[in-house]
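This part of the workshop introduces the protein records we will be handling. Backbone structure tokens are a discrete shorthand for how the chain folds in space. Once this layout is familiar, the rest of the handout is easier to follow. The record below serves as our worked example for the rest of this section.
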Amino acid sequence: MEEPVTAQHRTDGSPGRDGGGRVRRMLRAPLGWMLTGLVGVGLVSGLTAEAPGPLPLLGAVAALGVYWLIMRRLAHRPAPEIARRGAGRDLLLGSALGLGFVLVSTLLITVFGGYTFSWAGHGFVGVLFRAAVVQAAAAMTEELMFRGLALQALEELCGSRAAIVITGLFFGLAHLGAPNATAWSSLAIALEAGAMLGAAFLWRRSIWFVVGLHFAWNLTVQLLGIPVSGHPSDGLFTTAAQGGTWLTGGDFGLESALLTVVVGVLIAARLLSLADRSGRLLSHRSGARGR
């Protein structure tokens, strides 16, 4: 008679215990740890985002710690994407890609008469330091949220290709609230940035690679004096834009120029092809089973 009683006590626990178990299961599911991580990383980095000096970088480092805790303690999965081994190499490779993307896009627009540049006359070191701190912190935070958390969680649920599409669209929507944003600029961000950064992450499986790409992209645009996602730039140059918005991106900046979108989509397609050939894309079935 002892066994049935014991079994009953194991299965009909108090409402508090049962509810706590459901909450834990929800938080450990992909959408659960994704949403928890997005809130945690966003709150921690947001506390220092507008702070002076190097404080935004400290906030980004704290956000990295939150990300690690979410992955190890809540998602119960390793986090090789933030491993220190190879981080420097991936940062440099990503930065080279981001720099090349912006310079090629800017050169094409300039050749077609869209941009002219003049030296702004600001202090070189001061401008470079302030821009680098802001853009490094922003790149780290956004990549932890969109590629580290959102893309990997959705990848488990619906596979790599669908995850790129979904996170790309949300990345574009997130920029809809930026100054001078339009429906077109949001779509442009989704196509060029969301797709490129997502494909870059899937190819290298490294947060450092996409942080480097994102950082060099935004830093170069700012130093050239072109608006960064609608935000006016206090850079080393002053840029005058001539011609239609389709050519220059208008007040939103380089990222909503048609030529930039074309270059970005071509790079994204190439990166996705490399990821596929490397066997780093998950299908819907393998994503559902987890890794």
Notes: The CA atoms of residues 203 and 279 lie 9 Å apart. Strands lie at 115-119, 237-241. The longest strand covers residues 115-119.
